[in-house]
Specification:
The complex is a heterodimer of chains A (263) and B (264). Chain A has 263 residues and is α/β, with parallel strands linked by helices. Chain A has one domain: P-loop containing nucleotide triphosphate hydrolases (Rossmann fold, 3-Layer(aba) Sandwich). Chain A contains 8 helices and 10 strands. In chain A, strand 1 and strand 2 form a beta hairpin. Chain A is globular, with a radius of gyration of 18 Å. Helix content of chain B is 82%, strand content 0%. The two termini of chain B are 33 Å apart. The chains are: A alpha/beta (263), B mainly alpha (264). At the A-B interface, strand 6 of A face helix 9 and helix 10 of B.
């Protein structure tokens, strides 16, 4: 059971005495007889960028579904800013899904405004400015009145990101948002995400199966594995930002992550 | 294979004028049929007291139009269809929404409506005559019954089948019930509603014939049965053509609305 030791050590290293912004302990989730996650511990501090990697079917996406409040029942504890995700906790969480999941009939601006917090009336001038600001931030200022059908995959995913940011979540969850993009677009989008994260001092949990992506983007990488999925290892990425994709430290981290995945 | 399809693609690009005239191709066969019809009557294969020549039909319609007789029949029938569709669709929207949103309502009501849709239009006629007499209420109600089912069925299924992925987005961003209905569910089912409405209008035309054939003193269906009583095949065929014309017109109208509204 080396996994528990690793996870525990990681927790000590990151909580720094304060309570974490996002805390998961002893999380287990089963769908009927199929156990997707078992005994998962994770804590993410304010402003951190944490990636969760693992092979398909290890429960990565399930973890995000639990954190975003889409799963009603699970074992253990999952909190955001101290509140259980089954109650107000999930109200503080925004999610960018694997697919953009935009409303096809609505303009890009309307789609982003779906993410605005409930107390903001999307029809006011202020809300509009806010949405347009977000669109500028994701480089889609010129597409505010376009429909999703007119956008490329990368652009649609950026609309989805802007929608997540409009929500002003305490934690932004991203579920393999770049997996459907070609290699070049993917790199652009990754750098884009880093810029946005930096600009907004956001806290991000990214799920991915791409080891290079996880190492390049994250402060910390949590390796999930096994069936049911559990934390195999937590890898701190020491490389300084802004990073170079060929940085030695990144390559080493990739090695460590790949080893932990047992590939 | 590849070259063949490429050549086809080339042709389409180069000759847009042909593409634009494509709709006219649909008129070729009907025009031929009219010619054949004319020849069959002219050569005596059909006796003119059974099937009048096309020109006779046109002449009859023209004379009735000039006399102002036709406008009355047409407007009465169109009004019945309009109000029938209006009421039928309104009730269809109400129940479709209810059963789409509430599982309990669906369990209670959907089996009833599902079996009700299989009752033929003519089966209602005697009952409605008994209940509402031979006035307008009986006819409009009958048409409303016809228009109700497609609207109800399409809307109810549409609401139940709204993309689960989008509903999860709604949940994550805490849109709330009213907002999610307004911004996600209603636009998502708009295409279903319009498809249902198109079917409803189609059925309304079938039901109006049933209503007018049996008990009416005006309207295209009445004109038809009057033509039979007076042995005027030209009036019967003319009425059929008018039904075809107005049926198509209303269908194109709803389709036009559909294409305008569902533009994503």
């Amino acid at each position: 059971m080396s996994s528990t030791g690793d996870a525990g050590a990681a927790e000590e290293g990151t909580t720094r005495g304060e309570s974490p912004l996002l805390g998961v302990s002893g999380l287990g989730k089963a769908y009927g007889d199929t156990v997707a996650l078992r005994d998962v511990d994770l804590s993410v501090a304010d402003g951190e960028f944490v990636s969760v990697v693992g092979p398909s079917g290890c429960g990565k996406s399930t973890l995000l579904r639990v954190l975003s409040g889409l799963e009603e029942t699970f074992d253990g504890r999952a909190t955001v800013a101290g509140a259980d995700v089954r109650e107000e906790g999930s109200d503080r969480v925004g999610m960018v899904f694997q697919e953009p999941r935009l409303l096809p009939w609505a303009t890009v601006r309307e789609n982003v405004s779906v993410g605005l917090p409930a107390e903001v009336d999307p029809d006011t001038e202020g809300a509009r400015e806010r949405v347009d600001g977000l669109l500028d931030q994701v480089d889609l200022g010129d597409f505010a009145d376009a429909r999703p059908g007119e956008l490329s995959g990368g652009m649609a995913q950026r609309v989805s990101l802007a929608r997540g940011l409009a929500y002003e979540p305490a934690v932004l969850l991203l579920d393999e948002p770049f997996s459907a993009l070609d290699a070049l677009t993917k790199r652009e989008q990754q750098d884009h995400l880093l810029d946005v994260w930096d600009d907004r001092d956001a806290t991000v949990v990214l799920v991915t199966h791409d080891v290079a992506e996880a190492a390049y983007l994250s402060d910390r990488v949590v390796v999930l594995g096994g069936q049911p999925g559990t934390v195999e290892r937590v890898v701190d990425i020491g490389a300084e930002r802004p990073r170079d994709r060929t940085d030695e430290a990144l390559l080493d981290a990739r090695e460590t992550i790949t080893d932990a995945l047992g590939v | 294979m590849a070259t063949v399809s490429e050549a086809g693609g080339f042709g389409d690009d180069r000759l847009p004028s042909l593409d634009r005239l494509r709709w006219a191709l649909g008129l070729v066969v009907p025009a031929l049929l009219v010619v054949v019809w004319h020849l069959l009557v002219a050569t005596g294969v059909f006796a003119s007291h059974q099937l009048p020549a096309p020109l006779t039909v046109v002449e009859t319609l023209y004379r009735m139009a000039v006399a102002g007789e036709l406008a009355g029949h047409v407007s009465v029938t169109v009004q019945r269809v309009f109000f029938g569709v209006l009421f039928g669709a309104a009730v269809g929207v109400a129940f479709g929404t209810l059963t789409g949103v509430s599982g309990l309502a669906s369990d209670l009501l959907d089996p009833l409506f599902q079996s009700g849709k299989n009752i033929p239009s003519l089966a209602w006629v005697p009952l409605f005559l008994l209940w509402f007499g031979i006035g307008e209420v009986a006819k409009v109600t009958l048409i409303a019954v016809g228009a109700f089912f497609p609207v109800y069925l399409n809307l109810s299924t549409g609401i139940r089948n709204v993309d689960e992925d989008l509903l999860e987005v709604v949940e994550v961003y805490d849109l709330g019930r009213i907002e999610s209905l307004r911004r996600v569910v209603l636009p998502a089912v708009l295409p279903n509603l319009l498809v249902g409405l198109r079917g409803g209008v189609g059925l309304a035309w079938m039901f109006v014939v049933a209503a007018e054939l049996i008990a009416a003193s005006q309207g295209l269906g009445f004109l038809m049965s009057d033509g039979r009583v007076m042995s005027r095949p030209d009036i019967i065929v003319g009425s059929i053509l008018l039904f075809a014309f107005f049926g198509n017109l209303s269908d194109l109208l709803v389709k036009g609305v559909h294409d305008r509204v569902v533009d994503w």
